[in-house]
Amino acid sequence: MDFSPAVSSPRLLLRRFISTIYCIFKSAFSKLTYWTTGACKGTNSFVSSAGDKLDQNKDQNPTIPTSVNYHFTRKCNYRCGFCFHTAKTSFVLPLEEAKTGLKLLKESGMEKINFSGGEPFLHNKGEFVGKLVQYCKQDLQLPSVSIVSNGSMIKEEWFQKYGFYLDILAISCDSFDEATNQLIGRTQGRKSHLDNLFKICSWCKEYKVALKINSVINIFNYDEDMTQQINLINPVRWKVFQCLLIDGENAGETALREAERFVISDQQFQDFLDRHSSVTCLVPESNEKMRNSYLILDEYMRFLDCREGRKDPSKSILDVGVKDAIRFSGFDEKMFLKRGGKYVWSKADMKLEW
Q1: Catalytic residue among 83, 173, 204, 243
Q2: Residue 213 and residue 215: Cα distance in Å, rounded?
Q3: How far from the centroid of its chain's Cα atoms is residue 117's Cα?
């Protein structure tokens, strides 16, 4: 009988080699998993410890919602092609629930609230936003209460009823040429956007509301010179935004707008700023400054995180509170301060000549 060692076939040797390698990796992976999940008795894993430290830092240095933008409605009567907060829902919180959320924000350190949309004056003909403005100034005693509007739905009666409680009214105006406004979609039917603007300018002065102008610089207006008109209106601030793409809002398959054709380069935006360098109230906001420097609440009172180029919502402050929800806001406080987000925002401190 032959007792010499049997010679394995090449196929069998390969199979054993693969089996051995698999066992080595399985063992190593099992130990790694055991360690990283903190299963080793008497020890804490590095991953768990690092996560705990991050949570502790967040608890020790929580974000204060000093200035909040509440987009309580998405509905609008204009069709601006670059709009980055579109009518994806028609939901609006009941008034008392909205007040509850605003009170929570005040208790967490909010000093300024800005109501936006959509078009804020569209819902209940401006009564809803009017009551919120009055509540924030009269009951919560916030230093600053403001609204951003396209101006098309505002009536003088609203100023007579609520103007006293409003610090700043920002009107969106991208061009002082009606044809350009038509191209952009900053219009409703044959109504003149500019006529509404100048009418509101006079009401703001009469009812002692500080006026601000917001302009989105895009492919249809980047070569315009607005110096003369802005100096004539003389707003307390002229916010100049570079057209921004947000996935799911004005870009991408699920978006209600296609803003790609409105986008301009950084150099084109800078050219516009250079052309208006003599305008002292100009406050420029490039895409970099805009993206993460706003605390945005949507219609459900969820903070929206825009860091990934889209709007990822937190849980509602009505469900989890401000402290837990704001952790998922993506808010960059340093950029907020860098872009001039903190300024004299109470009309009582502006010392304006009405």
Answers
A1: 83
A2: 7
A3: 11
Contacts of 3 (CB under 8 A, 6+ apart): none
d(CA 294, CA 77): 24
Distance CA 244, CA 218 (A): 9
**Treating both helix axes as pointing N-terminal to C-terminal, what angle do 95-107 and 127-134 enclose, rounded to 10 degrees?**
30
Q: Is-catalytic flag, 281?
A: no
Selected catalytic residue, list 23, 40, 76, 201: 76
Q: How far apart are CA 256 and CA 305, in angstroms?
A: 19
Q: Is 83 a catalytic residue?
A: yes
pLDDT digits (tens, 9 = 90+) for 279-321: 999 999 998 887 788 999 999 999 999 888 888 999 999 999 9
Tokens 């409605």 sit on residue = 73
In three-state secondary structure terms, 125 is: helix
DSSP state of 164: G
Tell me the domains of the chain and their CATH numbers: 67-216+286-345 (3.20.20.70)
From 23, 40, 80, 204, the catalytic residue: 80
Cβ neighbours, 10 Å, residue 330: 21
Whether the CB-CB separation of 62 and 323 falls below 8 Å is answered with yes
CA end-to-end distance (rounded Å), the chain: 117
Sign of CA dihedral 279, 283, 289, 291: negative
Sheet holding 112-116, edge to edge: 282-285, 237-242, 210-217, 168-172, 144-149, 112-116, 67-71, 296-297, 302-305, 312-316
Question: Which is nearest to 70 in space by CA: 102, 107, 94?
Answer: 102
Place of tokens 């994806």: 88
For the segment 88-102, the average pLDDT, to the nearest whole number, is 97
